Amino acid sequence: MYRLREWNRGDADRLLEAFAWRELAWQETEIPRTPDEAMEWIDRRAVLTKEEIHGFAVVDGLDKVLGHVQISVTSRRHELGWLSFWTHPAEQGRGVATAGARLASRFAFDELGLFRVEAGHRIGNPGSCVALGRAGLLPEGIERAKLLYGTSRYDTASHARLVTDPEEWTPEGPCKY
Question: Is residue 91 part of a domain?
Answer without folding.
Answer: yes
